[in-house]
Amino acid sequence: MIEVRHLVKKYGNHTAVSDLSFDIDGGQVYGFLGPNGAGKSTTMNIITGCLAATSGEVRIGGYDIFEQPEKAKKLVGYLPEHPPLYLDMTAEEYLKFVAEAKGVKRSDMKRQIEYVIEVTRLQEMYKRQTKFLSKGYRQRVGVAQALLGEPELIILDEPTVGLDPRQIIEIRDLIKQLGKTHTVVLSSHILSEIRSVCTSAIIIAKGKMIANDTLENLENIYSGDSYVTLRVKASEIEIRRALAPMDAVMGVECTQLQDGVTEAKIDIDSDFRDKVPEQLFYAFASIDRPILHLAEEHATLEDVFLELTSQADISEESADDTEAKDGETV
Fold it and tell me: Which DSSP helix (H) or strand (E) runs through 10?
C-alpha cells in the first residue's frame, strides 16, 4: 500500500528524515512509533503530499506521490496532529466543504457524509459549530473528514494528544473499527496506544528506521533474558535443590519472606521458556512444597522501544565522535 524509498528531508543543516525506506501492506493497523522529534510528523506530511522531500520516493497504491499526486492523494485520508477545522462552521457544513474539496460527486455526497457521521458517532453533534465541540468531538470531526472520498489508506498523526481518558478510549475504539475496512497508519509516541490498536510497528529515531515488524516479533526478537518470579513455601536450600536438575535455569536469587515463604527470581534460557512452568510444577510437587505464585517476565514493547532508541542514540554519538576524530589535524 505504501512504498518509501531512501526518503530524506533536510531543513538547512538539520536532517529530519535520513534515508528512510519501508513498506506497509494493506489491511492492517500499523504503528509509526518514535520519541518526540524522531521525524514522525515530517514523514507523515511527506507521505500524504503535504510536504516536499529533499530526495527519495514515495508510492501510494503504486502511484508516485510527487509525480502523480492527484491519483495518490485520492487513496489517502489524513488527520494531522491538529485537525484543520473551520471553527465557525458546523461539523456538517465543514464535512460538506471537505467533500467538495475532495471532489466527491454531489450525487454521492449525502451518503458519504451520513456514513462518516455514523462511523464517528457524531449524530448528536454535527449540527453544532466546531468551536463549541469538546476536543474529543473535534478529533472525531477530523477523523470523519479523513474518511470522506472513501480512501483505502487512513493516516492519523497523534490522534489522542490532549484528550481525557474516556475520549482516548473512544478514539482508540474508533481506530480499531476503521482497521477492519481500511489500512490505518497511526503515528504516536504513546506506547500503550500502539499496543492497544496496532498489529505491526515501524520504529524510527533521529529520522532513521530502526525496526519494522509485528509487535509480537519485536517483543520476541528483543526479549533478551527471560525470568520467572516464584514464591514457594520452602527454604532457599530446598528451592535450589529442586531447581538444580533443570537445564533451563541460568541463575537464582532468593529472598526470604514471612511465614516460611521464599521468593525466587529465576533467570531462564529463553529457548526453554515454554517448558519451564510445567517443569517447576513437577519439581516442587516432587518435594511436597506448594507454589503460591508464579509469573513469567519478558520484554514488553516499552523495553523494546527503550533498547532500540538507546542503540540509536549510541550509534549517533559514535558517528559524531568518528567525524570529530576525522576532522582532527596531526
Answer: strand 2-11
Distance CA 238, CA 277 (A): 18
- The span from the CA of 146 to the CA of 150, in Å, is 9
Do the Cβ atoms of 202 and 210 come closer than 8 Å? no
The model's pTM is 0.73
Domain topology for 226-297: Alpha-Beta Plaits (3.30.70)
Fold entry, domain 2-214: Rossmann fold (3.40.50)
pLDDT digits (tens, 9 = 90+) for 255-314: 999 989 999 998 887 777 778 888 999 999 999 999 999 988 766 777 777 777 776 554
Sheet containing strand 291-297, strands side by side? 249-256, 262-268, 226-232, 291-297
Q: What angle do CA 176, 36, 87 make, to 5 degrees?
A: 65
> Which of 267, 277, 322 lies closest to 298, judged by CA?
267
Give the Cβ contact number of residue 167 at 10 Å.
17
